[in-house]
Amino acid sequence: MWLINTDTFKLEYVMNHVKGSYAILSHTWEEDEISFQDFQDLRIAKEKAGFAKTQQTVWKAGCMNLKYVWVDTCCIDKSSSAELSEAINSMFRWYTDAAVCYAYLSDFPDRERIAKLHPEADGPHIKRLQSTSFARCRWFERGWTLQELLAPDTVKCYDSDWNLYGTKTTLEEKISRVTRIPVGVLRKSTPLHQVMIARKMSWTANRKTTRLEDTAYCLMGIFDINMALLYGEGVKAFIRLQEEICKQSSDLSLFAWTAPFDDIDPLAPSQAYRGILSASPAEFKSCHTILPYQGRSYQGEFRMPNRGLCLEQLTLRAYHGSISLGLDWYDESTGSAQLAIDL
């Protein structure tokens, strides 16, 4: 693990990092970020726009007497596929082990700028405008920042001028409303492994990644999955992720996704007939309110051989000639009875 020494401002390779010995940055990537190679020569690094947030992160960590800082732009040698794979497979743990995570929201204007844009606004109005701007930040729309919110114990949120706006704890109600993540999960009083798979998938339904494969790779830590990175495989990456989840869990909500209708032909074969696995986290968008039905959960086994899905001890219910697979969950928002999947 490459870390920036806060005293020397140089990269050091630490084989076995000590939990709580470093700060970590969460941000959205922009133009002119500094790379691992750039950081070898600070004269080059300082010329790039991305250097400023790295410098601020190092300064803030130094003020907390932390020896190291980790920043994803310059602490991974992305020219090495092996190092990139190790970093992505380890990233959730790295964020978990950090003493503090600084979330830099570059598109979140500071209070002074908001006041200048709205000279007629009084104090309470400016506070509301700031809250609205916070909720609209790009940081809530990116795939990778989901685990960067969930993994660390302490997350400090900064505006574009590096003023502290609040922490994950003080802002938990706002963050919960924006992300639809329960406050208990943000507090870690509800462990991630106790949350239904479909509900966790729904948290990333509206998030985007630059590369299609990262839609799956950014979720590996949240589901405690390790797998090889194969950039170029496209949507197959998300299929592979679900296959790996199948090997570790018997949570049937993995199959609770809903395919979008074809705007031109709702009954087009491409939408009318699909495999059992989802093509995208976006298809779990409506699953943020599902809960186990009457506290039950499927205790049988399911597995995926080379063709199809094998299930044990499940009831298939027939209605008017159709067959449905009964599931042990219901929709909290509607209070509906036990739900099922049409087969």
Automatic annotation (TrEMBL):
<dbReference type="Pfam" id="PF06985">
    <property type="entry name" value="HET"/>
</dbReference>
<protein>
    <submittedName>
        <fullName>Uu.00g052710.m01.CDS01</fullName>
    </submittedName>
</protein>
<dbReference type="InterPro" id="IPR058525">
    <property type="entry name" value="DUF8212"/>
</dbReference>
<feature type="domain" description="DUF8212">
    <location>
        <begin position="236"/>
        <end position="272"/>
    </location>
</feature>
<feature type="domain" description="Heterokaryon incompatibility">
    <location>
        <begin position="22"/>
        <end position="148"/>
    </location>
</feature>
<dbReference type="InterPro" id="IPR010730">
    <property type="entry name" value="HET"/>
</dbReference>
<dbReference type="Pfam" id="PF26640">
    <property type="entry name" value="DUF8212"/>
</dbReference>
